[in-house]
Amino acid sequence: MNAPDRYERFVVPEGTKKVSSERDTKIVNAASFTIEREDHTVGNILRMQLHRDPNVLFAGYKLPHPLQYKIIVRIHTTSQSSPTQAYTQAIDDLDRELDLLKRSLEVF
Amino acid sequence: MEGVSYQRFPKIKIREMKDDYFKFELRETDASMANALRRVMIAEVPTIAIDLVEIEANSSVLNDEFIAHRLGLIPLVSDDAMGMRFSRDCDACDGDGQCEYCSVEFHLNVRCDSDQTLDVTSNDLRSTEPRVIPVDVASRSLASESGGYDSQERGIIIVKLRRGQELRLRAIARKGIGKDHAKWSPAATVTFLYEPEIHINEELMETLTLEEKRSWVESSPTKVFDIDPDTYQVKVVDPEAYSYDEEVIKKAEAMGKPGLVEIYAKEDSFIFTVESTGAIKAYQMVINAIEIIKQKLDAVRLQDSEEPDMGELTQHL
Ligand SMILES: [Zn+2]
User: Fold this and answer.
1) What is the DSSP letter of B29?
2) Domain DNA-directed RNA polymerase RpoA/D/Rpb3-type: where (chain B) (predicted)?
């Protein structure tokens, strides 16, 4: 009776930002990105792609609670880069990988 | 920093392709990508399914909601789903979810007037959009066009009626995803396995008698190894049959021959099996999944306004 609506899992509520970032107060070049209405699908590919970046010292994600439909991606980089730069780079790289995958499939 | 890329360059090789079955190899990427594809095919590739049912008359033995539920589970041809609107985002009907951009209307009107039990099936659903019909109806009409085999086969049974009973209803089909309700999932099964790499220590293997070889080969619950009838050598016949059960490794140890075989899972090679409900062709499910992941990634890009360390970044430059 008090179960949340099913669409709550993937529809970002009005007035909420899809992505918000928060800089770490203690460590330089570290930040957390809160991504609303995403789960392991996006969290894990982002994390693994970030690990390929040599300037990324730490990249991890967590799904804080199964009924809180958001993930938190934490990134710590060297001074050669920044969390936002690494984050954007990871998305760009994944996007290109998917483009390549799509093109190689569409041949058939 | 411009031009730096840590992109992977995956390769795809197709093994088998049928309308509702697709087997392919995905290489030179990692498990996160393979798993994202699998998860998205199951839960986020959209299809069309009946979502709202208005019962006008129902004197069958099944209650209204039972019938509505059964109607929802009938797979509908969803080739147009990617381009369709979700009712919740549709501005043409303002949340009503019944306009031509975000819905397809069905009618069903069946009455039994004989002593024979009447099956109400997916065949009795009348669609207002010829491109969106039950998949079994579509495949039967295709089969009857091209030679007409088995066109008498019945459809998916919704309910059975006896004399005097009737079912009359209007149904609205909408675009949706498996995350919302499993009826919208185009996937019957989507699985991937790590390609196994099997190395037999030939030297050690030759210290085994034929009888020992047989009992070792038979210790595997799946048929991975066999004995060559001419040379009596143990060979790998089907590496992919190996289910990482480690039975052959334990057997070798029990026989006092540790290291007889070494088996690794290749961490960058995956063999996918995709089975579709028929709503979308299995091959198209993969293409759509790739497109959906791209859309998801695009949605999680940072907006210019919310980059906390932009100042720092310009300092570096
Ligand atoms: Zn609409």
Assistant:
1) S
2) 21-303
Which stretches of chain B are assigned E, i.e. beta strand? 11-18, 21-27, 47-58, 103-111, 118-121, 126-127, 157-161, 166-176, 187-200, 225-227, 234-236, 261-276
Locate the domains of chain B by residue range.
48-177, 202-259
Domain B48-177 has CATH 2.170.120.12: yes
**Is the confidence at residue B307, as pLDDT, over 80?**
no
Q: B317: pLDDT confidence band, cut at 50, 70 and 90? A: very low
Report CB contact under 8 Å: A84, B1. no
CA-CA distance, A52 to B54, in Å (whole number)? Answer: 54
Q: A33-87 pLDDT, tens per residue?
A: 999 999 999 999 999 999 999 999 999 999 999 999 999 999 999 999 999 999 9
Residues 161-200 on B with a CB inside 8 Å of A are: 177, 179-181
CB pair distance less than 8 Å for A19 and B300 = yes
State how far the Cα of A65 lies from the Cα of A45, in Å rounded to an integer: 19
* Angstroms from B259 CA to nearest CA on chain A: 33
Q: Do B1 and A81 meet the contact criterion of CB atoms below 8 Å apart?
A: yes
Q: Which CATH number fits domain B202-259: 3.30.2310, 3.30.70, 3.10.450, 3.40.50?
A: 3.30.70
Tokens of A54: 């040599």
What pLDDT is stored for residue B315 in this prediction? 44
- Confirm whether B48-177 and B202-259 share one CATH topology: no
pLDDT 10s digits, B118-155: 999 999 999 999 999 999 999 988 887 776 555 567 89
Stretch B173-202: mean pLDDT, rounded?
97
- Cβ–Cβ below 8 Å for A95 and B298: yes
Say what the pLDDT of residue B183 is.
Answer: 98
Distance of CA B92 from the midpoint of ligand 1 (Å): 5
Work out the average pLDDT over A8-22: 95
**Phi, psi of B150, deg, nearest 5:** 55, 30
Look at residue B153 in the predicted model and tell me its pLDDT: 74
Total Cβ atoms within 10 A of residue B171: 24
The rounded radius of gyration (Å) of the Cα atoms in chain B is 27
Nearest to B122 by CA among B49, B174, B43, B60: B49
Q: Is residue B96 within 8 Å of B172, Cβ to Cβ? A: no
Nearest CA to B135 out of B73, B83, B194, B180 is that of B73
